[in-house]
Write a structure and sequence with these properties.
It is a single chain. By secondary structure, this protein is an all-alpha fold. Helices cover 62% and strands 0% of the residues. Helix 1 packs across helix 10 (200-215), helix 2 packs antiparallel against helix 9 (174-197) and helix 6 crosses helix 9. The longest helix has 28 residues, at 107-134.
Length: 247
């Protein structure tokens, strides 16, 4: 989540003119993002595992095609951290097999995993799929993949992780992930409405609120770090199998 939201640290006085002067492009990009967000959500709702896996594969392939010199903690490393933080005394060895999010995490741990890893991973997938859909069609041969900006690299870092493992994590937690996705979509649509209508005072308040939330996040955890395209130690379990969703 820290990587995905790093751009939220930007100054409000910078963002207001950016939104005003690039309104059409911003809204077009948001529409494309929401279309791919809806595709991912529909695959979860309809229990189309193969389709969901194909989306993750496409997003992963697109993301690893980019030059990214910054070492990043992958999803495996994050899950190892979450396990160490929230699963002490859970009553069973994590390596014994697949288990339920609610069986092995208390509420705080489940929400942390959902909001800190799973939701940002879905956001990263939608960002990659959206960029992939327009890459090569931009003016003067501009390519997002060939010249990604740092904010895009930050926001899409989860897609450096193994797509098969990430697919399982997200798909089998679909029941708990979908309400969080809906809440995020609602917030994004509200922000788009402010941009569309040029409501500068409300945009300022929203940007300051987001900046405050981002500034209140704890510092990054030190430890398991993966080089670009690589992963830290992979746990031999799938966190949070939703048995209802898997049926």
């Amino acid at each position: 989540m820290r990587n995905t939201t790093r751009i939220a640290n930007a100054n409000v006085e910078m963002w207001l003119p950016v939104f005003e002067e690039n309104r059409e492009a911003i809204l077009s990009a948001a529409d494309g993002f929401l279309m791919h967000w809806g595709m991912l959500g529909a695959a979860l709702d309809r229990k189309y595992l193969k389709q969901f896996q194909s989306y993750m594969d496409m997003a992963h392939t697109y993301r690893i095609s980019m030059a990214d010199a910054e070492p990043r903690e992958g999803v495996f490393g994050e899950l190892s951290d979450w396990s160490a933080s929230f699963m002490d005394g859970a009553g069973a060895d994590c390596s014994e097999g697949v288990f339920s999010l609610t069986d092995r995490f208390d509420r705080a741990g489940a929400l942390s995993l959902l909001r800190g890893t799973m939701l940002p991973s879905m956001m990263a997938a939608a960002m990659c799929l959206n960029a992939r859909s327009i890459d090569g069609t931009l003016v003067r041969g501009v390519s997002i993949a060939r010249s990604p900006n740092p904010s895009f690299l930050d926001g899409t870092a989860p897609m450096l992780s193994d797509p098969g493992y990430l697919s399982d994590l997200l798909y089998y937690n679909g029941r708990v992930l979908r309400p969080a996705m809906a809440a995020y979509q609602h917030s994004l649509e509200e922000m788009c409405a402010l941009v569309r209508q040029g409501r500068a005072d409300e945009m300022r308040a929203a940007i300051l609120q987001v900046k405050g939330l981002r500034g209140g996040m704890p510092p990054p955890r030190k430890g398991l770090v993966a080089a670009p395209g690589m992963e830290a130690v992979r746990p031999d379990f799938v966190v949070g199998l939703d048995r209802e969703h898997a049926a």
